[in-house]
Every structure is written in C-alpha cells, then in structure tokens.
Design goal:
It contains 7 helices and 4 strands, in the order αααααββαββα. With 198 residues, it is mostly helical.
C-alpha cells in the first residue's frame, strides 16, 4: 500500500513522448532543483513510475515495490541521469557524453549476457521473477534508453526552457516550446504578466 511519502505519478509526468525521456524527467525541476527535487525515493516510487508509464502492470509493479535491495533506487537514478545527459546534449545539438552512453550500453549488455533479460521479438519482456531483480529492472530501463538513442529524431528533441524536462516535439510545425502549456507554459505567462504589472 502506498504511504504519504510516495510520489503520486500524474499524466503531466509523462510528456516526453518516449519512456526514456519520461524517466530522464523523473525529478521535480532540472533547471532550478528544489530542496526536495527527487521523485524516485523508494522501490515503491520506481514501481509506481513503471505502472504509470505503462511499462508494468499491477502485479509487475507490486513485484518491483517489494524489492528489498536498497541499490535498486540508486541504479534506476543512475540510468535516469545518464539518459538525461545524453538526450539533453542531443536536444542542445551537442555530442552525447561518451561515459553516459557507455554506462547505458554496459547496463543493457550485462542484463542480456547474464540472462536477466529475454528478448521477445524486438521487445524485451520481463517475467515475474525478473521484476523482482534490480539488475533486470535496471537493464530493462537501460535498453529503453539505448533504443531511444537510436530512434528518436534529434531535430525534434527539445528541453523545456523553464523546467528542463525533455520531450519529442510532435507538433506539426515543430514549434512546441514548453513541456506542457498547462504547467510551464502557464507559469511563464503568469511570471511575464507579473513582471509587466510591476
């Protein structure tokens, strides 16, 4: 059962257009980190994120939530930060950092070579036992980022100028600026209005 300290995942957390970007965005704010900026604080938060993102069903998420290994959250955050550094660089038309890319490739390869991940056609599916294995979960998330690295179009990758969240701009003209008009877009409008009012 979730407790009051668990992160509540909302549709607004999943604006990236790809699960690897949504994972990279799993902090409150990238540009001006708040004192409590972390959204992945426990195995339950990781489980909730996997469930809300559509990557895991209820029973799979419950398996993740029950992982007692304290290293799970640390490993998932490591994948998140490597993913963020790669896709933020690409959104800014810079070369992705080799160390971060190497880390993702290593985590994915280790999971595959150790038999922790089983390819199912071109997708990876984890069986119930694997959802309880921190290494398998980490390898699964690393594979998502590796896949995104090869498939997401650089010219459509964006970073929100207000919060720094990443997203694929799928708008017709490619002019989407904010992660979400409902959050950062409206906040920017309000701050501009207040600045003009003074």
């Amino acid at each position: 059962m979730p407790d009051d300290a668990d992160t509540v995942w909302l549709p607004e957390h999943f604006i990236g257009g790809h699960a690897a970007l949504d994972l990279a965005n799993a902090v409150f704010d990238r540009r001006i980190p708040a004192p409590d900026n972390e959204l992945l604080k426990s195995a339950r938060d990781v489980a909730g994120w996997l469930r809300a993102s559509g990557l895991a069903d209820d029973s799979q998420a419950q398996a993740v939530a029950g992982v007692a290994d304290a290293g799970l959250v640390e490993r998932v955050r490591e994948i998140r930060e490597a993913s963020h550094s790669i896709f933020a660089a690409r959104a800014a038309a810079r070369s992705p950092p080799a160390e971060a890319l190497g880390l993702l490739f290593r985590r994915a390869a280790n999971g595959l070579s150790a038999g922790r991940l089983e390819p199912c056609s071109t997708r990876l599916d984890l069986n119930f036992v694997q959802w309880q294995d921190p290494e398998a979960i980490t390898a699964f998330l690393a594979m998502l980022s590796v896949e995104a690295f090869f498939t997401l179009p650089d010219e459509r990758l964006r970073s929100c100028p207000r919060c720094g969240w990443l997203f694929v701009d799928t708008s017709r003209g490619g002019k989407r600026r904010w992660c979400s008009m409902r959050t950062c877009g409206n906040r920017e409008k309000a701050s501009r209005h207040n600045a003009h009012a003074h």
